[in-house]
C-alpha cells in the first residue's frame, strides 16, 4: 500500500544521512559567505586561518607519549634486529618526532624551580661520566638538576641507570620526565629527548633533532647553565647543535674535563649563579720581582706551569722584572711559554714581560707604579692574583681559588656578603702586620668543623677566617676592590702633595712589607673590609713562602732582632681531588659562620668591626681627608674633602688632631685577645 504522505520536493523522500554532506557543505558555505557586513566576513575568515595554523604547529611535533597500539618502527628498521648501525646504514631522514619527550614537558608547567641546571649528552660514554656529578649535585639540593639524553642509542633510561649502578637516591629530573626520579626500574615508559629511528638517522637529521629537542627543553626549564662532557669525545652532530642552540638562547655552556668525576666534584657544591659565571671569571697573575729575588722566580713559574687548570682558561701572566736580572733566570724566560700546552687546546700567548729601567726614588712612586700594573676589563668578573717570587704554589691552588671565588663572589648568596670582601688569600700570614709577634690563627667549635672527624669533646678545630689585614705574598683581589684602591691611592697621594706634613703618618706595618700595602691597610680599616684566609686541620697550604734571606733582609734581621727565627714553611697541599682535602665533605663554610679578626688580630663581630671602621674613617677624614664636618662614609670619596667646590682651589682646613682621632689612627694591639663573637651575616639557603 503506498504511503499516504506526499513529498513536495525530491529531497524530502531521502534518508537524513543522504543529506549530511550537503547540509555540512551548506553550513560552511553560509558561515563563510554570510552576507553580513564585510568586516565580519573578513574577521571570520581570519579567525579560521589562525585556528588552522595554530592546530598545525601545535600537533606537528608529536609530543604525546606513545600508546600501546602505536607502531613507530614500521617505517624504519627495528633496532632489536639490526643493533647499532654504522655510518653507511644511517639513511633515515624522515620527519622528526619526539614520542617520549612530550609527557614530561607538558607536566613541567607550573612546577618550575628557579635554579635549574641542565646536563645533556648524546654519547652514552659521556652520559655515564656525568651521571655521578648530576646525582651528587641533586643530592646537595642547591639546584634543580635536569638530565637530557639526545643521542642515537635506544637504551631506556631505566636500563641506562642500572648499568651505571644508580638504583635509588638520584633525584635528577630525566628528560623528558620532570619528576623526582629514583630509578624506578619497574616502569616501562621511556622518557628522553631522542627522536624516532635515532639509531638509523642520518647525521643531519640527528643534528636537527638535537637542536629542536634541546630548544624545547631549554624553553620549558630555562636553565641557568648547560653542562656537557668534553666535546671532543661527544658526537660531532651534538657538539654543533649544542653550540648553535646555546648561542641563540644565550645560555652559558660548562664543558667538563675528562677526569671531572675524580678531580672536579667540588663543582657540585656550587649554586646556579656560580655555575653561570664559570666561563666569565678571568684572573690575571702579576709577579713583581725585586732585584735581590730574581733567582727564586724560576721556582714560582714552574709551580704555576705544573698546576691543574682543568677545563678553565689558564690565567694571564705578567712578570715585572728588575733592572738587573741574573743569567739563569733570563735563559729560563727565553724558553718559557704561557699558558702551558694542553692536549687538543690551542695555546694563545698570555705572557707579558716588563722590565724596570730605573729604581723608584720614593715610596709613593713605587706604590703607584705597582697598583697601576693591573686594571680590570670588567670589574665584576676580572680579578688579579699577586704573587711574591718567594712563593711556591700547590698543584690544586687554582681549584681552591676558583671554588672560593665562585662561591663567595659570584653565587646568588655571595652577592649579599661580598661587598666587604676584598679578596682571597692562598696562605697563612706568619706574623701580625707590625711583626710584633707570630700570628696565631683562630679556632672554632662552630658547625664549620667536620662532624665526621672524631675529636675530643669541646675541642677547637682550625677554621678559615676573615681578617681586616690583607695579604701580600699570595692573594687574589677582586676587580671592583682593586679599582677602589686605585681611586683611594689617587686621592691619598693628592693629600700628601697638598699637605705633606700632616698627610704622612707613621707606618703601621712591618718594614719588610711592600710599600703599597700600607695604603691598602688604610683603605681596609676605613671601610671595614676583610680578606678570606684558608686554614685547615691538615696544616697544609695552597701557597708556601720560602724564607731565603736576601742580604738586605738578613742585615735588618741581625740589626733589629739578633735571635729572630724565620717563619715555619707550611707544606703544600697535594693530591688530585680538592673535595677530599677540604673538611665537611668538601663544602666551604657559610660566610656568616667564619670568624672575623680586626686589624690587630682581635676576634670581633661584624657589628663591632663596622663600629671600629666608622671611628677610624671619621679620624681619617679629619686628619688626612681635610674634612671639617661629620658624614657617613659610604664610599672612598667620602673620606676626602680636598678641593673647594667653587673654584677647585685647595681648602686649607688645618685642624688640631683630637686625642680620639689620633688614637683611632695609630692604635695597635701587641697582645691580641681572641674573644668569641657572632657575625650575623646572611646565610646560604
UniProtKB/TrEMBL annotation:
Ranges that cross the membrane: 45-61
Show the ranges annotated as biased composition (Polar residues): 68-80, 674-685
Q: Quick one: where's region Disordered?
A: 66-88, 661-685
**Does this entry carry the keyword Transmembrane helix?**
yes
Q: What UniProt keywords are attached to this protein's entry?
A: Membrane, Transmembrane, Transmembrane helix
Q: What is this protein called?
A: Uncharacterized protein
In its UniProt entry, the species of origin is given as Trichoglossum hirsutum
